[in-house]
Write a structure and sequence with these properties.
about 475 residues; five-stranded antiparallel sheet; four-stranded mixed sheet; 23 helices
């Protein structure tokens, strides 16, 4: 990400919140780096450097400010860099790829060499993949220390550290304080011993009503429920299962994630899934600037600012939903998904009556007899389940959009519409675009249904944000 020195300095002088999370200011005289909105006195221009990533600032020897707390800044979108490989790598790192394996495995998943990946990171991020992963672990650990009552061992493991010793060393090196010293005073609002609550920040505007309506109409009975200002669902992590909730607070620029404390060791994965589900990393100012060049999209943005791409909590679950929804109404697809969950899903004993089913695993549906739909569609679900269960297909962010579409359409029963829909919602691909969708063709033609080819040609000017254009067009339909 290229930073303009003069623009950055003007931004910190005005404390412009629009730049929060896009870059960080390092002050050479204090050895501290801050967010653009830091309330501290603005440093002299000749004493500052700017970095696009906290990891780059820390690699250069600066410590995070204890006042503005860079670790809670809105996250820099993974696609902000000019390298597609770096963007996909950042997504995988955020999902914990370097917690479970090394740089060689990450590079293999991206289809490049480890040395080439390091060079790309130095060029586009200003530091190495390992440094980025370490900084994200440390920052998330501090958030858990200050906002929860989790034991330190759960904080360490939940943040991605392989041991408490490494966790202690990293916190001391970054903050100059031990984890216990950071948790000297526990705020009254801290999570209880039975649950963990975290703030998930985003850049406004945020159209909660549009996103909630989209998710509510597609909610799977017995698995998830959407209310006026909350989303809740059943989840599993290893042998643990339970219910997580996300609440919307209109007066703030964050959501509140609540999860049972038993998920302490996997809380970062849960937080990342929640962020992806509500597309909290989107920088709508940048996206809107591109899409506004089309008068139709400009009017839709003005009418409904803050429209985002709904993600998916479980990529396999969403992929099954996409197959079920082929040539079926939204309501009808939800009913069928509820039947599948009821017959093949796992029941949660003693749970709230509204939440009592875990969606079935791929290995369960691989040989399932699925009724209530054409046999070809049922075969497509079984085929998808088999390749996901045996690892042949990995529904993850490491592949490019083209590679993902190619893999999906090679499966029986999955065409371009389904493949693009899956890529858009499960992999966070902002340029995925199911151009043959009847609703999109009708909305783009202002009531007159245009052809898929016409829509695809017009959408060329919307790249690389065609997925957001699709959501704007869908949201304009009755």
């Amino acid at each position: 990400m290229t930073l303009d020195y003069d623009v950055c300095y003007r931004a910190i002088r005005s404390r412009d919140s629009r730049f929060d999370g896009r870059f960080f200011t390092a002050v050479r005289t204090t050895g501290i780096y801050c967010r653009p909105v830091c309330p501290a006195r603005t440093p002299r221009k000749e004493n500052v450097d700017f970095f696009s990533e906290p990891a780059a600032a820390e690699e250069a020897g600066f410590r995070p400010c204890l006042r503005c707390r860079p670790e809670v800044a809105p996250s820099t979108p993974a696609w902000a860099g000019s390298s597609a490989v770096v963007g996909r790598a950042l997504r995988l790192i955020a999902e914990g790829a370097l917690d479970r394996a090394g740089i060689n495995e990450l590079a293999r998943r991206l289809g490049v060499g480890a040395r080439q990946l390091r060079r790309l990171f130095i060029a586009h991020v200003g530091t190495t993949p390992i440094a980025v992963a370490q900084t994200r672990r440390v920052h998330f650990a501090r958030t858990l220390i200050e906002s929860t009552r989790l034991p330190m061992i759960d904080v360490a493991l939940g943040s991605g550290f392989s041991s408490v010793r490494r966790f202690n060393v990293a916190m001391q090196q970054t903050y100059g304080r031990t984890p216990s010293e950071i948790r000297v005073r526990q705020p009254a609002s801290a999570s209880s011993e039975q649950s963990v609550e975290l703030k998930l920040t985003y850049r406004p505007p945020f159209s909660w009503n549009t996103l909630a309506a989209f998710l509510a109409s597609r909610a799977i009975p017995g698995v998830e429920i959407v209310g006026g200002n909350y989303y809740s669902r059943t989840i599993r992590s290893g042998s643990d299962h339970g219910v997580v909730s996300v609440r919307y607070l209109p007066a703030t620029s964050h959501l509140i994630l609540s999860a049972p404390s038993q998920f302490g060791n996997s809380i970062r994965t849960i937080a990342n899934r929640a962020r992806a589900l509500f597309d909290l990393g989107a920088d709508l100012e940048v996206i809107s600037e591109q899409l506004r060049r089309d008068p139709l999209l400009a009017s839709l943005i003005d009418a409904n600012p803050g429209v985002r791409i709904p993600g998916a909590w479980d990529p396999f679950e969403l992929s099954v939903r996409a197959i079920v929804g082929q040539q079926v109404s939204v309501k009808g697809a939800s009913t069928i998904m509820g039947r599948i969950a009821n017959r093949y899903g796992e029941r949660i004993e003693g749970a709230d009556d509204r939440f009592f089913l875990l969606f079935p695993r791929p290995e369960v549906l691989a040989d399932a007899v699925i009724e209530g739909m054409p046999s070809s569609r049922a075969r497509a679900i079984r085929g998808l389940a088999r390749v996901v269960a045996d690892g042949t297909l990995r529904l993850e962010s490491g592949s490019s959009l083209e590679e993902t579409i190619e893999k999906l359409v090679s499966l029986p029963g999955i065409g371009p519409w389904t493949a693009h829909y899956i890529a858009m919602r499960t992999l966070g691909e902002p340029d995925a675009f199911p151009h043959n969708d009847l609703g999109l063709r009708k909305a783009a033609g202002a009531g007159i249904t245009i052809s898929g080819a016409e829509l695809l040609s017009r959408a060329e000017a919307w790249r690389p944000w065609r997925g957001y254009a699709a959501m704007l067009l869908w949201s304009s339909l009755p």
